[in-house]
Design goal:
Blueprint (H helix, E strand, L loop, with lengths): L11 E8 L2 E8 L9 H10 L12 H10 L7 E5 L5 H8 L3 E6 L2 H13 L6 E5 L10 E7 L8 H11 E11 L5 H9 L3 E9 L10 E9 L1
Parallel strand pairs: 3-4, 3-6, 4-5, 6-7
Antiparallel strand pairs: 1-2, 7-9, 8-9
Helix pairs in contact: 2-3
């Protein structure tokens, strides 16, 4: 497990998030836009259309974390967070006493999630998993989180394929989205799949630069 974080464009910053009577101490990139001019990022983009999405605190993450903290989970439930990025939902799950596998296709996101778990003294229940949605592994979880992961239509079928392979028979996946225009396309795929879907509206948590409103949470389970 990485003990220290490497140098990155724009450097790191640490913030405290006070959510649902819990305080999460989170280190994250201070200036994620600085990655866009990084030579390694530009080269990876040419090879595989890579973008450093992991480095941003995504809009739906705060209220998703609050929903996780307030939910009545059985102790030490195993959770997979896909496209973890800053992994606020997964850190909230650790604080709630769950066992969390932080997954991303960028190793830096995984290293960051494990670093933050140590900061919050919850590392005992944390593991990292390098995972590409296009190649799900033969492992199942009773709970899967996907916070703000359906922003691009090209990701919808890989995510659905991952859920088919990695969601346990009696499990559920939480897919949250702040209202992006591609969400309906994902819902159409779900409607024609072996899954059923329930919807919740989450009140948007106050945060600098975010408009008031609601975030959509779709709870996906097997029919």
């Amino acid at each position: 497990m990485t003990q220290e974080l490497p140098a990155i464009p724009g450097g790191w910053t640490t913030r405290e998030f006070h959510l649902a009577r819990s305080t999460l101490r989170i280190t994250l990139p201070a200036a994620p836009d600085d990655f866009l001019d990084d030579p390694d990022v530009l080269a990876a983009n040419r090879r595989d259309d890579y973008m450093p999405y992991w480095s941003y605190l995504w809009p739906a993450s705060l209220e998703t974390a609050v929903a996780v903290l307030r939910h009545d989970w059985p102790p030490e439930t195993s959770v997979l967070e896909i496209g973890a990025g800053i992994a606020l939902s997964g850190q909230a799950a650790l604080a709630r006493g769950l066992k969390v596998s932080f997954s991303d296709y960028d190793q830096r996101a995984i290293d960051l999630a494990l670093f933050n778990a140590r900061q919050n003294q919850t590392e005992r229940n944390a593991e990292g998993l390098l995972l590409d949605w296009r190649a799900p592994i033969d492992r199942q979880f009773p709970v899967i989180f996907g916070c703000d992961v359906i922003y691009e239509k090209q990701n919808h079928r890989p995510i659905l394929g991952l859920l088919k392979k990695m969601l346990a028979p009696d499990g559920e996946a939480w897919i949250s989205d702040p209202g992006r225009h591609q969400a309906n396309a994902f819902l159409e795929l779900l409607a024609d799949s072996p899954f059923k879907t329930r919807h919740r509206s989450l009140a948007r948590e106050p945060y600098s630069g975010r408009p008031a409103g609601t975030t959509n949470l779709w709870i996906v389970s097997w029919k």
